[in-house]
Amino acid sequence: ADYDRVLEWCELLQQEYTEKEPGYVTVCHSVLMQLIVFLSRKFRIRQQNEMNMDFRLAGAVVHMQTSFAEKITIEQLADLSGFSKRHFTRLFQQVYGMAPMQFLNELRLKHAKMLLESGNYKVTEVASLCGFPDSNYFSAYFKEKNGCPPSEWRG
After folding, report:
1. Do 77 and 88 form a contact (C-beta atoms < 8 A)?
2. How do residues 102-131 score in pLDDT, each as one tens digit?
3. 112 and 121 Cβ atoms separated by less than 8 Å
4. Checking CA distances to 65, which of 16, 109, 129, 143 falls within 20 to 30 Å?
5. Who wins on pLDDT, 74 or 39?
6. ∠ at Cα 55 (52, 61), nearest 5°?
7. Nearest to 64 by CA among 81, 48, 50
8. Among the residues of the chain, which ranges form H helices?
9. Interval 45-66 mean pLDDT
10. Are 80 and 116 in contact (CB under 8 A)?
């Protein structure tokens, strides 16, 4: 639930900044303040070293959220966070409740659903735009997670 709230705020920030509708700067400031307060409340009771660990992991999450369409490896994320590959994977699983690549694929899937719902893209285009290695993998993964192929997705 906490992850979903943070993800919603990040998506709203991205949407507002991308669309640049009147008042978007105010909305962005407001959402950032909510995010900062939320995160500060979540981390206030933790010791400093735990906070540093979480913020280092958060850098990897931000990278995944902003670069999900690119090829991202565990090695890149671990390097970005300053952990070994094995330690990064273990900590990420502990903090976020899923493996880093599962987290990345869930981000990709969420974005893919939005693109499919827009009706402006073919399945192969969506797979490519969302960072899936090929459309067959994307279609199989999508169907596994949603119970229908992407070509039938209506939201």
Report:
1. yes
2. 999 999 999 999 999 999 999 999 999 999
3. no
4. 143
5. 74
6. 150
7. 81
8. 2-19, 24-43, 48-67, 74-81, 85-96, 100-118, 123-129, 135-146
9. 74
10. no
**How far is residue 21's CA from residue 65's CA, in Å, rounded to a whole number?**
22
At position 47, the amino acid (one-letter code) is Q
Cα separation of 97 and 102, whole Å? 10
Measured between alpha carbons, how far is residue 55 from residues 50, 82, 108, 112 in Å? 9, 11, 22, 27
- Residue 103 CB neighbour total at 10 angstroms: 20
d(Cα 108, Cα 145) in Å, to the nearest integer? 12
pTM: 0.66
Separation of alpha carbons 97 and 119, rounded Å: 32
Count of Cβ atoms closer than 10 Å to residue 83 Cβ: 19
